[in-house]
Design brief:
- This protein is α+β, with helices and mostly antiparallel strands.
- It is built from eleven helices and 22 strands.
- It folds into two domains: 1-43 and 178-412, Naphthalene 1,2-dioxygenase Alpha Subunit, Chain A, domain 1 (Alpha-Beta Complex), CATH 3.90.380.10; 46-146, 3-layer Sandwich (Rieske Iron-sulfur Protein).
- Strands 11, 12, 13, 14, 15, 16, 17, 18, 19 and 20 form a ten-stranded antiparallel beta sheet that branches. A four-stranded antiparallel beta sheet has the order 4-3-2-5, with no helix packed on it.
Length: 412
């Protein structure tokens, strides 16, 4: 019996046999957030950038997470590589954001420099490092994979590849030609006042859409259930309604989307795909653009939301839809989804407030929330301490979780 199978059997159930949420303390505990970062986030695929941002030698992009920074850079041989964004001397962070490094990667602290392939090339005052072996002090490599133009890394390697994780669900992305898109600007990065799992829970289900996102409900026929595969990649399909929305922006989008971007097939032009990828990524795909919600733990009651947007390029008369129409379509999309983002944030922060309410007990989960159940089981597998209904004493969470993991390994 695997650890996952064993822990699935231990999940709490209501008297009706329905799965219930994780205990309230698990959504506010700083110690647990540290363990989740190590055991859930670091061994998972994380989005860094789009292939268009690193197309030429020297182009780079970085990803900053709770304790780690990762660098993706294209070398002079044309190969894209990923490294820990840390100097091998005294750990100074090397690069920030995105950009182009035409010569070498030079540490801003002491000037150690690396070529674009990550090899250490120069050490100032090298004579003061007798016996130094520069060939053993290159940047630390990180696992990397590209899917439909999206560049992902995994700090702790092992487990299924990115392509294997998506499986057949990756094929649905092909008609949208994501690899052709370009960034619309710098990623929007903000801190939400909620535990990262609350934001993930919200992103994993459409049950809240009719009430929580009235704009989506006006303009889209949405699949409230969706499907999920064994690797935690879920997706659902939403189609623009024939009935015009009462809201002008939504109504205009409904009208324009089928008319422009005629290089796409008619069905794709009116279909939105919503993907989630365990444990913390949502990918929203539209005919004119796509965005990524990357939800990163910060502490027990806050998380970092990283939100890049990528748009279909084109100006002037292009494939039956001129540049102005494309820009209008993208503007409408971002206006609509900016409002959805505000709604999601408010909903998640309301849940965080409610988690501390006296007497709250986890409620049952709908069959629409099956991806939430899958996510919670992944948390239970990595952090079996969440089986405790009450918060462990401060300072004991890691020790007790390690003990439980040892017990599960022995049982397996």
């Amino acid at each position: 019996m695997t650890m996952m199978q064993n822990l699935k059997g231990q999940q709490n159930e209501t008297h009706g046999g329905l799965a219930v949420s994780l205990p309230a303390w698990a959504y506010s505990n700083d110690e647990l957030a540290e363990i989740e970062y190590e055991r859930v986030i670091l061994p998972s695929w994380q989005f860094v950038c789009h292939i268009s941002q690193v197309s030429q030698p020297g182009d780079y992009a970085t990803l900053d997470m709770k304790k780690d920074s990762i660098l993706v850079i294209r070398a002079r041989d044309g190969v894209l590589r990923a490294f820990m964004n840390v100097c091998r001397h005294r750990a100074a962070k090397l690069l920030d954001g995105t950009g182009s490094c035409k010569g070498r990667i030079t540490c801003p602290y002491h000037g150690w420099s690396y070529d674009l392939g990550g090899e250490l090339k120069a050490v100032p005052s090298q004579h003061t490092f007798p016996g130094i072996e520069k060939d053993k002090l290159g940047l630390m490599p990180v696992e990397m994979e590209i899917l439909h133009g999206m560049v992902f890394i995994r700090v702790v390697s092992g487990g299924p590849s990115l392509r294997e994780s998506f499986g057949a669900a990756a094929d649905l992305l092909a008609p949208y030609r994501l690899e052709e898109m370009v960034p619309s600007g710098e990623p929007w990065i903000d801190t939400w006042n909620c535990n990262w799992k609350i934001a993930v829970d919200n992103n994993l289900e459409n049950y809240h859409v009719p009430i929580g996102h009235p704009g989506y409900h006006r303009m889209l026929d949405s699949d409230l259930s969706g499907v999920i595969n064994e690797h935690g990649v879920a997706h659902s399909v939403s189609v623009l309604k024939e009935k015009p929305s009462a809201n002008w922006a939504e109504r205009m989008y409904q009208k324009l989307a089928p008319q422009v971007l005629t290089e796409l097939d008619p069905e794709t032009r009116k279909t939105w795909l919503f993907y989630s990828m365990a444990p913390n990524i949502g990918i929203d795909i539209y005919p004119d653009s796509f965005d990524i919600f990357q939800i990163l733990p910060k502490d027990g009651t806050t998380c970092v939301m990283r939100y890049p947007v990528f748009v279909r390029p084109g100006s002037g008369a292009v494939a039956g839809g001129n540049g102005r129409e494309r820009k209008v379509l993208q503007y409408l999309n971002q206006r609509i989804n900016r409002q959805v983002g505000h709604e999601d944030r408010e909903l998640c922060e309301r849940v965080q407030t409610g988690m501390t309410s006296h007497g709250y007990e986890p409620g049952p989960l709908s069959n629409y929330e099956h991806a939430v159940v899958d996510f919670h089981n992944r948390i239970r597998a990595a952090c079996p301490i969440v089986a405790e209904t009450q918060a462990p004493a401060s300072g004991t969470v890691r020790r007790r979780n390690d003990a439980l993991l040892g017990t599960e390994r022995s049982a397996a």
